[in-house]
Amino acid sequence: MTPLLSVSNIQKTYGHRIGCTGVNFDLYPGEVMGIVGESGSGKSTLLNCLAGHLEPDQGEVLFDTRAEGLRDTMTMSEPERRMLARTDWAFVHQNARDGLRMGVSAGGNVGERLMAVGARHYGNIREQAIDWLGRVEITEDRVDDRPSDFSGGMQQRLQIARNLVTGPRLVFMDEPTGGLDVSVQARLLDLLRGLVREMGLSAIIVTHDLAVVRLLADRLMVMKSGHLVESGLTDQVLDDPQHTYTQLLVSSVLQV
Amino acid sequence: MIHIENVSKTFTLHNQGGSVIEVMQGATLSVAPGECVALTGNSGAGKSTLMRMIYGNYLAASGRIIIGDVDVAQAEPREILALRRETLGYVSQFLRVVPRVSTLDVVAEPLLSVGCDGEVARERARDLLSRLKIPETLWSLSPTTFSGGEQQRVNIAHGFAHTYPAILLDEPTASLDATNRSTVLSLIEEAKSRGAAIIGIFHDAQARDRVADREVDVSAFTPKRAA
Prior knowledge:
The complex is a heterodimer of chains A (256) and B (227). Chain A has 256 residues and is α/β, with parallel strands linked by helices.
């Protein structure tokens, strides 16, 4: 079986500081990978390197493209990478404002991605936008409002709808549920799990919420100071952590 | 179906003075299709530890755990995920679900994830839930708000929805009344008769006598501690 994403030996430094180093893994279709670690451990740096937002100092990120199979996304041309970013990839930013057009209506934000892949019928675009807004619990009467009139949590949900509407194969998420109230967070987790099951969606999710990764992620990587200290099956890493840092992390969670 | 050979387990507590606790060594047992083996032993003997190693939650320090053609002790996460989806079921004591998902969908989920048609999966879920006497009025609600006994029955329905060839049961009948316990035991018997290999922990001696073909005392695998 061909991995969807094959990452080898990624390193990114900021001057003499290590962002992340020595990261290797394969992600297969339908798998959800969680990346956890304390703030500053290099989770977001790694995610940005994988998604092509940051250029790593060394390493390869191979993606199984529809047309040509495994391609190194680092060496592919900018137009090719941009095409990937608006079709097969999706990126959900930690801060919704980074992933939305604040001056365009909610419906327009969702429709933009559809138009980028060739949709032209306005009625259909609007219908699909309303459908996706409904899935993330934004009511139809808000479709023409701008994201700047939305609450922080609504903006985040809108960003997720915008990203998923084109049926991407790989979603990168940076703390996607961080600013959401718990009831919507639960709804989103269910939505994501459904998409993983029905569309074979793969996802890489950076978070510090261990409860979220337990419910959502099949596999888990634990990062500390830019290094990958432990990886494996999510419940194995959480139930039987091997590394000092993971043991500390798992035992530090407050019980609800 | 399930072959466990010479499995050992140690816990290293890095944050508590680096103490190393040996909890199991030389664990060996086999379960044939259609057979139910009960793990016995005092509390702390390692029954749940062994179960978790079989399910892949705990890493075995050494030995082999073969289920079908996969060695759980060595397998890649991807192989274990496929094994859990298709072959190996687990009914734990605790229900762990995404909040706000309806009971019916929770129970149907294992079937959907093996590619079963949605309506067929929900029909099977309805059938199991009514056998386990979960009132129909609750099916559309999330099980997170249910009572302990109801949650346990939802968990059992979830674990028996797909016809796994191998099943692990961690106290499936604890906190159930006599009627429901009998239903659960019938489900286990049906699974056996269709050829499932079952390993269970039953604190309830009557239940154990009814479904288990053999008992394995886990304390035989407990390392002798230096005095």
